[in-house]
Amino acid sequence: MKVIKYLLGICFSVVISTAAFADWKPSGPINLQIGFGAGGSTDILGRAIGKEIEDQYGWKVVVENKPGGGGIAMFTKIAVAKPDGLKIGMGVSMPTLINLVMRGDKLTFDLDSFDYLATVTRAQLAMIARADAPYDDIAGLIEHSKGKGGALVGFDAKPQELVMKLIDGKSGAGFKLVSTESGAEMLQNLLGGHIDAAFNGGPHIQYLESGDVKMLASVNAGRHNYAPDTQTLIEQGYDIYVDPWWYIAAPVGLPSDAKDALAKAFNSAINSENVRKVIQNVLKLKPNNLGPNDTKEMMVDGLANIAVLFGK
Amino acid sequence: MLVNRLSASFVIFLGLSLVYFIFPIEIEKLDYGWVRPQTLPNICSFLLITFGLVQFVFPRGKVDLQFNQILWSGIFMLVAFIAVFGFHNFGFILTAPVFSLTIMLFIGERRILWLLLGVFLIPFLIWLSVDQILGRFLP
Amino acid sequence: MVELEIILLGLGDAFSLQNFIFIIMGVVIGQFVGAVPGIGPIMATAIAIPFTFVLDPLIGISFLVGVNKGGTVGGAIPAILINTPGTPDSAATAIDGHPLAKQGKHHKATKMALFSSVTGDTFSDLILITVSAPLAVLALKMGPVEKFALMICAFSIISGLISDSLIKGLIAGVLGLLFATVGLDPEHGTPRLFFGYFELYDGLPLASVAIGMLAISEILKRLSNARGKALPTIQIPKNQKKEDQQLSFTEYWSCRYTMLRGACIGTVLGAMPGIGSTAAAFMSYASAKQASKDPSSFGKGNLHGVAATESANSAVMGANLIPLLTLGIPGSVSAALLISAFVIHGIQPGPLLFENQGRLIYGLFGAMIIANFANLWIGQIGLRFWSKVIQAPESIIFSSALLLCFIGVFMATGGLFGVTVMLIFGIIGYIMNIFGYSVVIFIITFFLGKKFEQLLSQTLVIIDGNPAELINFPFAVFLLILAILSFWWLGFRKQ
Question: Are residues B47 and B79 located together in one domain of the fold?
Fold first, then answer.
């Protein structure tokens, strides 16, 4: 009798838990907030994912742009939102981590303020130059820079500036760093011959194919899938890398059933055929969802890496 | 003349208080690069002080001071700020009709048909198109 | 070179019934949201993009192009009728359009806006279709130094708009520049003047400032003046002559040079990413005033003022597609939104686009021309609708306009924070109006300020802070001399 009761109990609890798992449904429309303005790659990815969840699960997902400080404005609000699974934020790891390192005392959140749900993929950042430039790698660029009294290098984000300063400090190349607004602007200046080298995270790939641009280095920890022959900065002797991830997080304290259901929903959306196609079209990348636990780990490791990069 | 001097002294005051009180707190000064965070703000406040002084000494230009209009604009502004408070706490559906009604009554609209149109139909149309058709949030 | 067969196939796609319907739908939506104060074509495009996921690429993009083109036409309507421009690029339209409306000639003004807008748009579309590739290469040659010089040039031409008091105009301009410095600084990315609000990291929200200064301050004034009168918003004089209610071909034709100049300014600025349609509109307006035999009639209801502005800001839209299609570089927010619509469908604008997607591109060109005609046609019907709406009492027009500004800015900035900022700038604009400081000059320098600071920084890095280095940039020097000349000439003529 006892055994049967025990078994029944187990069955029951299993039934209850799976029922609970399958039963978690958002109590209203899910608000997926994008930490960047409309029209950028984060916006495109977020909207594609939101739509896919709607189609797959029948939940209503409202995607909103909340630009400001590379996602800081949005995550500040998300951190204090009610953890009911209805307010979710999507951003890029780099700006969040940099702000935590540089002015963490002024921010009202830290890494523990969130329950992490997923990553979408990792961005690939390259150093590029015009195809007719007389150098093919970082060493060549340094030589060229010394020769002409300072090569002009375009960047559009803090870590890129620091990477160049670090290389400059080691080699004495005397780079002159030109601050720009976007990858597209750098590409335009590069193609027009106004700068000697630049960073780029996607728009350059078609120019590699057309033969107008060449790649000097991968700035990530590993080489890029579309240019397997180009070495990383680490391989070229500079122990530094930048790994920006797109990630999705909710306010901490999400009920575990909600967290599981959401993580599952995001996972199946990110890996769906439609989103896969969008990621391929926009970024020439494949989806890469680390899952809730590894996303958190990525952020923690990333914070340490950034602290080293900024010398803090 | 006097009014122009008045606005000129405000401009000078603004320039000075920016330089001495606001910039030191609100701008992290950096000491490298060509255009530093403080460069353009400082130039702007310097120009404000200079132009303000010129305007103070040689006051010129038209002014359009109508106290009755300013008073009522202030009241409408107050209503608008209260409406923001209302949107935040009670939401669009409750606040919008009250807000429209207040404004319309203040202007002196008493015809019931127009009032109904402005108080119910317009907010309803906004709600219909934003919330229902576009699926966006309203406050 | 694309083969003729492909061009014809593409054009054939454009003329399909389905494409036709979607273009017209886009234009209708665009004109409507453009005309509603507070909501502009940018937001309409952003909202519409997810709907185009499921459409065929050509149809989806044609639809968005329709929304954009309709939006520029629609934007002029509230500017003329109630003096509250929904977007800053139609702010200059209000300067002459609204005085015309006050004289009861709103039909004339809105028709002029519609016709000159379509004229400018068609001009830049034809440039895009015929010579986009060489133009794009030319635009690439404009580096940071040249763009900086161009911006100085734009400032100096626009300074011709300062009328009443030079010093007050300058103060307004400096204030605009000052407010543009809020947020991350462009060279080092250090946050400044954000007073603890992270929403201000990227600067003051553009929509809040523009609508606050241009629309809210005007609505406030009109509300207080309207008290107790229960008047229709626009009064038509009883014995108005028939020709005041319509636009004759002679009047349209008399503006041909103004429109051509506007279309050229719009096309040049549109082909160069980053300067934008607001600057183009004001530059065209200022140069029309400068070229006029009777500059003092500007601001009092001169049709040339409307024609200059609308032809220029509409020409920017078509020309924006030049760098977008040939180089994959967006020149404005709406162009960036169009790029995202392309890439979602797996089409990468850029050097390989014409080779890989020739049929689609010529389909798009066909669609643009169709959209221009649709604009003209829908516009005619729309104007009749709006002139009926505007007969309603001021109480309902301005209370609804205020509500729409709230909702528009709420949606554009993603929260009530943006609405509060809008109201604060409404007060600032109102006070500036009272004391005679030009709000228009403020808006221009505010909109160009961020880019100005960044170009200044880039220029100084490139020339190493040494003005003598400018000798290597002859075109920039030419532009700077032009700037000085035009500033001197404007100042000289005024004395």
Answer: no
Q: Which residues in chain B have their CB less than 8 angstroms from residue A29's CB? A: 135, 137
Query: Is C427 part of the contact surface with chain B (CB cutoff 8 Å)?
Result: yes
Residue that terminates a domain, selected from B57, B87, B104: B57
Q: How far is the alpha carbon of A62 from chain B, nearest alpha carbon, in Å?
A: 7
In chain C, which residues have their Cβ closer than 8 Å to the Cβ of A210? 350-352
pLDDT tens digits along B60-118: 888 888 899 999 999 999 999 999 999 999 999 999 999 999 999 998 888 899 999 99
Specify the pLDDT at position A17. 43
Say whether A188 and C273 touch across the interface (CB within 8 A): yes
* Alpha-carbon distance values, C28 to A23, A300, C34, C54, C64 (Å): 43, 50, 10, 20, 11
Q: Does B13 reside within a domain? A: yes
In C157-169, which positions are buried (b, 16+ CB within 10 angstroms) versus exposed (e)? bbbbbbbebbbbb
pLDDT tens digits, residue range A185-203?
888 899 999 999 999 987 7
Beta bridge partners of A154: A178, A198
**pLDDT at position A4, please?**
53
* A151-178 per-position pLDDT tens digit: 999 998 888 888 899 899 999 999 999 9
Nearest Cβ partner of C202 from A44, A68, A103? A68
The pLDDT, as a whole number, for residue C447 is 87
Q: Rounded to whole angstroms, how far apart are CA atoms C442 and C431? A: 13
Contact with chain C for residue A212, Cβ under 8 A = yes
Closest to B23 measured CA to CA, from C204, C190, A95, A106: C190
Average pLDDT taken over every residue of chain C:
87
Give the domain extent around B43: 2-57
**Where are the CATH 3.40.190.10 domain residues in chain A?**
126-218
Checking if the pLDDT of A7 tops 60, the result is: no
Q: What is the pLDDT of residues C445-487, one digit of tens each?
A: 998 898 899 999 999 999 998 989 999 999 999 999 988 888 8
Number of domains within chain B: 2
Taking only the tens place, the pLDDT of each residue in B16-70 is 999 999 999 999 888 888 899 999 999 999 999 999 999 999 998 888 888 999 9
Within-domain flag for B117: yes
> Which regions of chain A carry the CATH code 3.40.190.150?
28-123+244-309
Record: fold of A28-123+244-309: D-Maltodextrin-Binding Protein; domain 2 (3.40.190)
Same domain (yes/no): B72, B129: yes
- Touching C (3+ Cβ pairs <8 A), the chains are A, B
User: What CATH homologous superfamily does A126-218 map to?
Assistant: Periplasmic binding protein-like II (3.40.190.10)
Same domain, yes or no, for B73 and B127?
yes
Q: Are residues B86 and B53 both part of a single domain? A: no
Q: How confident is the model at residue A19 (pLDDT cuts 50, 70, 90)?
A: very low
